[in-house]
Amino acid sequence: MNAHRAHSPQIHPVFCTIVPPHLLDQVSRNSDDVLSRPARRTLERDATQRTRRQITTVRYGLLASAPAAPDVDPADRKPQRTISDAEHKEQLPGETVREEGSEAVQDASVNRAYAGLGATFELFLTAFDRYSIDGAGLPLDATVHYGDEYANAFWDGERMVFGDGDGEIFRDFTLPVDVIGHELTHGVTQYTANLEYQGQSGALNESVSDVFGSLIKQHSLGQGAQEADWLIGSGLFTDRVEGEALRSMKAPGTAYDDDVLGKDPQPATMDDYVNTGADNGGVHINSGIPNHAFYKLAVDLGGNAWERAGQIWYDTLTGGSLQPDTDFAAFAAATTEAAKSRYGDGSDEHEAVRKCWSEVGVTAG
Q1: Whether residue 158 lies in the annotated active site
Q2: What is the mean pLDDT of residues 39-68?
Q3: Burial of 19 from C-beta contacts in 10 A (0-12 / 13-18 / 19+)
Q4: 284 is an active site residue
Q5: What is the pLDDT of residues 225-278, one digit of tens each?
Q6: Per the residue annotation, which of 12, 145, 284, 350 is the catalytic one?
Q7: Which of 12, 182, 183, 349 is catalytic?
Q8: Taking the CA of residue 59 as centre, how many other CA atoms within 13 Å lie in the half-sphere pointing to its CB?
């Protein structure tokens, strides 16, 4: 643990949703109440959960550092999943409907959540030897069917929570496995770099979740970097939406262009960096820049993106060199150093990392 973190033992009060508030705000202003009402209600619920998360963090002083890994034989490191059903209410966790090792149930949302938690656990264990989200076997809990027409999914610091969507714009949020991986990776960041959810460090927090969410999808599908779609939330939109996904790592700013949602605002390079006070300083918008850098690195290196590109990002996240307020330049420097440390000065990996940041206009600081 670095000196800065030693003096800042508390987790920053992060409440992370897969659908950014700027998108829901856009929908909430639509003249069609069928579209705007669920968006308004979702924003209200998210505001309540965000406040609750902040109060919990302050009251209980949650620690940023992960607990020591237990002495468990590698062969016995298995996930411990519990899926609950909120039954369209807003009380968590809801009724337990499936536990680790039990048979699939008739509810497809339950089974998808169970499988998505497993896919996330599997990627971190097999690719990075990380034993669950905290590195020490943390049980993985999730709640499905949260609220009525709730159009989001979130990590609240303890569990995954999925809405069923509004049926007009958003489908069931258990459908894309990368959404599940994205939100659970916020937990990994919580226990490692503890990046503040504001400005560039917040955009990095979001980007890291997109990176590993995409890697979890690619790993579960057995896809290499070249054949992956690099979309976040593909399949989440209904057919009425003109768009492929919530975000594109391959081409930020092109994920959707719709009469109701507006146009995807993500920049791909620093030339189009968005200065805004909304969304915690644009954490869901400017994350397109580090997302695009990772995409470029993964495609440049080729093969399975989790093997080299993902390893460099994981080494950076867990290496102890990041400060909670790390900006893009410092993160670029940290990834460059991580590539050098693992693969050697002047290696293909080292040079590829330097190149990917240069191509998105970030100069390593």
Answers
A1: no
A2: 63
A3: buried
A4: yes
A5: 999 999 999 999 999 999 999 999 999 999 999 999 999 999 999 999 999 998
A6: 284
A7: 183
A8: 6
